[in-house]
């Protein structure tokens, strides 16, 4: 279970502070797929960096299975938009990277690399260098590398934001399958409301300044989802509801700033 308890983060700014996040209380049961949406500046990336332990909260705490998070750790895997990979390492050696830091027998490391390469459709490319890959393939490498450490929680920060529509949909199907196969908890930040509903079991809408939870909505769609689910009336109704919320909180924020 991932718990965010009265979580807050402010950044000093000349003449005051930016309240990036305030009083966030959220519990994510193990194995759940949660998507976080919100207008630009609502604190989505800040939220992920606090959970990843890359930044410290200024209030409250993050707990994973009851233990406070005090820094980065292999129990949380992080994937960024750019699909950051080590340019001098082959695909296979990129996927092995995090594992090299873990106290695992060599045979187990090799087993995991082979399994996650297959799971992300990269086996045939295992000897390629990143410069030979497309953006979608590089993002698969970043996902496989994060998953190979078998984290309790996979944190995805706009992972498909830079991809074209077809590649993005392929990656959405891939991440859902990987999630179902591994049972990992997934927390994904995205600008794309359609993507959030298609992937998530739950959608959190953040409001800006202070960043806070404006809505926490269950996604009432079948567990098995084809891309065609995006055309169902229930899907379209939820999409309109979430888009209206994001827009409303964004406008409110703009009006506040104008005063
Ligand atoms: N290191 C920092 N120093 C100062 N202010 C920051 C810092 N990081 C974030 N902020 C501020 O905190 C607020 C939340 O930023 P954050 O990047 O988390 O939002 P976001 O929802 O991820 O935005 P986007 O969708 O544009 O990536 C913004 O007002 C931002 O300017």
From TrEMBL:
Q: List membrane-spanning regions.
A: none
Q: Which UniProt keywords apply?
A: ATP-binding, Nucleotide-binding, Transport
Taxonomically, the superkingdom here is Bacteria
UniProt-listed InterPro entries: AAA+_ATPase, ABC_transporter-like_ATP-bd, ABC_transporter-like_CS, ABC_transporter_ATP-bind, P-loop_NTPase
Pfam families in the record: ABC_tran (PF00005)
Specify the ABC transporter domain's residue ranges: 2-233
Output the Gene Ontology terms for molecular function: ATP binding; ATP hydrolysis activity
Gene3D superfamilies per UniProt? P-loop containing nucleotide triphosphate hydrolases
What protein does this entry describe?
ABC transporter ATP-binding protein
